[in-house]
């Protein structure tokens, strides 16, 4: 009955906004993570990383929503290192439908598996773990933050484009470093680069600020290579590795030339407007997790405006639908992958001074969208749980 | 007056800038050559009354002036920081420039480039539109979600109107009753009643609306959505979208077809839409809303402006740093003119009646 739909839509349009339609309630839930103190007097990772992005997303969504009589609220809750995040979730009140989650992978899974969270859409802005998009994926779990696989793919596409394909890989001792290194190895295989040798570095032994000149020579000595890739997510030594490698080679990875969803030098596609709004609100530069927080709330706001409704079921249906598209100051419409809930998005290759390149890099083609050259693609995805029934 | 050798140089935009096109266009370029020469000669004879094309170079903080007859840059003058939108008073004797990073609209003598004075513009003016009364300027303030209304004669702010986030495109209806602004993050067209200077309604459109243009009869408003990849045609009486135009070019990813600048012919027959990083300008039948043609121009095409006689269309190409001149009748590019870095805005100054400044 194709004739019926337009009629229905017309009737819907004639109806006044549902009486008593309240604001769409969005929650922000964060696990406070202990950070090492900065090594080189860098600005510490701010305590409100992520939250400030979500707050800007709320502000933007309300500024937009008022033109169509829609509004949004954001409640935030941060749990300490030894608290149970599930209790915090239960304390959020009557059936939270949308939770922006800035927490490690174990927390993400613990919450997604809660029976009480059956109707909750989680937007992951803090856990880059690739497994959350693959074997450990969950229904109604969207990933706004790029996976380590996407970050590594962005970097290796760049290296392949430059033909800097011989990689000496140096990893730190943390489990996250091993995951980052693993992602780089997978990407190297995917795009025809080669890990010539792999070594480990443990910064616990000494003070790298004093010893870097001599200390890094040994772990970066190896077969002929084009770049030294470093996996040091916590920033325990990577910054001091730059210019201290045995051979004169650029450092790429978690330090040096870094793949990221956002960064201070990003300015194209009106990004500078978002940067300015964020700086005005937070008094600091916007970081990748802030961008994810903003993007998470912005996606919900945009879905509500497109649906002209703050009814949670309507908004959830739209945001989980494979046809949903949302802008994100990256020059392309962004959308969530239908097979694992990951936000497809361009990524930047940054050093602190500039955006060196934007991935997907020119020439890496995909039949659907080039954005799907970053991260796990549909045919190889190990995610089974995300796909909705039917 | 252009010499024959110049005419011989004319071709589709420089093949160096568009390697992929060089191959595709070669044979067509050869056949088009004769036609182009003919059209060039005919318009060279009108050189005496040629208009001038003003282009704002966003990164150079300058305005380049192209002579409409020789199609060469005849002067370049400095303006405020990050110049974007620009427009002329009706007599062509005053140029207004949005200097976004200087937070000013500059009032400039187009002959000398001298800044007469600045107008209060609100923060970060991006684009503006001059009302038919030739004195009321509607300015989109990108960074603080307002539209500032300024009387260019008294230099007073008449109103600041709250609109959606990142207002960008501005247009005033031909009867001077309605102004519209598009908000890039709110994704709406906001309708402003000029009599009361208040926002009266908002029409949601596709993602990131960038430019708006009224049809000559004022009945339709065209609004381009850069990220949505569409152009909405809105009935100004009901403020409802009556048509959403989509684009498709073989071999170009859909998400590179990003509509920005719009130019409509007065007779209501054609609409031209700049398609950003696809390096194309779409030609649309403004009655059936069918896309008729895609014209290849320079890289990342932003804005469009037509000569008063509607024979030529000028495009600013941000990445290749040039302006493509399109012959409207044949819908073909006839020349690219190198200007400054990141050319963005473009406005055509009607042929000056008694101006000595136009001589090369």
Detailed description of the structure:
The complex is a heterodimer of chains A (390) and B (360). With 390 residues, chain A is of the alpha/beta class. In chain A, 32% of the residues lie in helices and 17% in strands. Chain A has eleven helices and 14 strands. Chain A has helices spanning 4-14, 51-65, 85-90, 105-112, 148-162, 175-191, 208-215, 238-241, 271-282, 288-307, 312-319; strands spanning 24-31, 72-79, 98-102, 121-124, 141-143, 166-171, 194-200, 227-231, 251-253, 258-260, 335-336, 343-344, 347-351, 354-359. In chain A, the strands form four sheets. Chain A has a five-stranded parallel β-sheet, with helices on both faces. Chain A has a four-stranded parallel β-sheet with strand order 7-6-8-9, with helices on one face. Chain A is globular, with a radius of gyration of 22 Å. In chain B, strands 3-2-1-28 form a four-stranded antiparallel β-sheet, with no helix packed on it. Chain B starts with a helix and ends in an 11-residue tail after the last strand. The A-B interface holds A 60, 63-64, 67-68, 270, 273, 276-277, 302, 305-306, 325-327, 331-333, 369-370 and B 142-143, 145, 164-166, 183-188, 190, 202, 204, 207-208, 227-229, 253, 255, 258, 277.
Largest interface: A-B, 20 and 24 residues
Query: How many runs of DSSP E, i.e. beta strands of chain A?
Result: 14
The poorly predicted ranges of chain B are: 1-48, 354-360
Low-confidence stretches of chain A: 9-20
The gross shape of chain B turns out to be globular
**Estimated helix fraction of chain B:** under 10%
């Amino acid at each position: 009955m194709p004739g019926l739909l337009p009629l229905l839509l017309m009737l819907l349009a004639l109806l006044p906004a549902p009486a008593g339609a309240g604001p769409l309630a969005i929650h922000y839930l964060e696990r406070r993570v202990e950070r090492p103190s900065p090594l080189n007097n860098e600005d510490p990772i701010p305590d409100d990383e992520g939250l400030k992005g979500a707050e800007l997303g709320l502000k933007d969504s309300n500024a937009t929503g008022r033109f169509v009589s829609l509004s949004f609220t954001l409640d935030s809750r941060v749990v300490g290192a030894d608290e149970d995040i599930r209790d915090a979730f239960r304390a959020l009140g009557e059936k939270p439908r949308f939770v922006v989650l800035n927490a490690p992978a174990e927390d993400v899974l613990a919450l997604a598996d809660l029976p009480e969270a059956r109707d909750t859409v989680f937007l992951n802005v803090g856990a880059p773990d690739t497994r959350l998009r693959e074997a450990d994926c969950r229904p109604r779990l969207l990933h706004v933050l790029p996976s380590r696989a996407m970050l590594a793919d962005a970097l290796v596409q760049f290296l392949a484009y430059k033909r800097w394909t011989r990689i000496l890989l140096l990893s730190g001792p943390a489990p996250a470093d091993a995951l980052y290194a693993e992602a780089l190895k997978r990407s190297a295989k995917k795009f025809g680069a080669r890990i010539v040798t792999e070594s480990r570095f443990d910064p616990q032994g000494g003070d790298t600020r004093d010893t870097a000149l001599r200390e890094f020579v040994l772990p970066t000595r190896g077969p002929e290579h084009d770049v030294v890739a470093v996996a040091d997510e916590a920033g325990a030594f990577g910054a001091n590795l730059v210019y201290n490698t045995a051979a004169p080679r650029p450092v790429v990875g978690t330090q040096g030339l870094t793949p990221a969803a956002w960064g201070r030098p990003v300015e194209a596609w009106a990004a500078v407007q978002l940067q300015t709004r964020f700086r005005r609100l937070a008094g600091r530069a916007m970081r990748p997790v802030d961008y994810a927080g903003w993007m998470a709330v912005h996606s919900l706001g945009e879905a509500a405006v497109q649906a002209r409704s703050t009814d949670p079921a309507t908004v959830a249906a739209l945001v989980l639908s494979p046809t949903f598209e949302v802008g994100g100051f990256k020059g392309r419409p962004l959308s969530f992958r239908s097979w694992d809930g990951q936000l497809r998005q361009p990524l930047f290759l940054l050093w602190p001074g500039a955006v060196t390149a934007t991935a997907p890099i020119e020439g890496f083609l995909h039949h659907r969208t080039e954005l799907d050259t970053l991260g796990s693609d549909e045919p190889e995805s190990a995610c089974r749980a995300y796909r909705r029934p039917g | 007056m252009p010499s024959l050798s110049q005419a011989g140089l004319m071709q589709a935009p420089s093949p160096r800038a568009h390697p992929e096109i060089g191959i595709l266009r070669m044979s067509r370029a050869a056949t088009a050559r004769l036609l182009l020469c003919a059209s060039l000669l005919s318009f060279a004879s009108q050189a005496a009354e040629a208009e001038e094309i003003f282009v704002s170079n966003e990164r150079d903080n300058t305005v380049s002036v192209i002579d409409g007859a020789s199609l060469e840059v005849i002067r370049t003058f400095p303006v405020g920081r990050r110049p974007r939108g620009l427009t002329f008073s009706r007599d062509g004797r005053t140029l207004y420039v949005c200097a976004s990073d200087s937070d000013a609209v500059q009032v400039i003598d187009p002959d000398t480039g001298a800044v007469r004075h600045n107008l209060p513009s609100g923060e970060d003016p991006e684009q503006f539109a001059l009302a038919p009364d030739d004195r009321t300027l509607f300015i989109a303030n990108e960074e603080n979600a307002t539209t500032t209304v300024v009387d260019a004669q008294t230099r007073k702010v008449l109103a600041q109107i709250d609109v959606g986030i990142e207002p960008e495109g501005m247009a005033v209806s031909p009867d001077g009753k309605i102004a519209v602004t598009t908000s890039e993050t709110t994704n709406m067209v906001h309708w402003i009643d000029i009599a009361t200077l208040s926002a009266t309604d908002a029409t949601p459109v596709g993602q990131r609306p960038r430019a708006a243009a009224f049809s000559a009869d004022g009945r339709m408003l065209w609004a381009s959505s850069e990220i949505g990849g569409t152009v909405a045609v809105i009935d100004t009486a009901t403020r409802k979208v009556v048509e959403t135009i989509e684009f498709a070019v073989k071999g170009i990813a859909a998400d590179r077809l990003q509509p920005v600048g719009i130019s409509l012919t007065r007779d209501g027959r054609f609409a031209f839409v700049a398609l950003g990083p696809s390096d194309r300008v779409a030609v649309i039948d403004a009655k059936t809303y069918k896309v008729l043609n895609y014209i290849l121009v320079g890289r990342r095409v932003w804005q469009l402006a037509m000569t008063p006689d509607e024979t030529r269309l000028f495009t600013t190409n941000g990445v290749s740093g040039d302006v493509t001149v399109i012959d409207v009748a044949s819908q073909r590019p006839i020349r690219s003119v190198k200007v400054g870095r990141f050319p963005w805005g473009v406005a055509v100054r009607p042929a000056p009646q008694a101006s000595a400044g136009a001589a090369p």
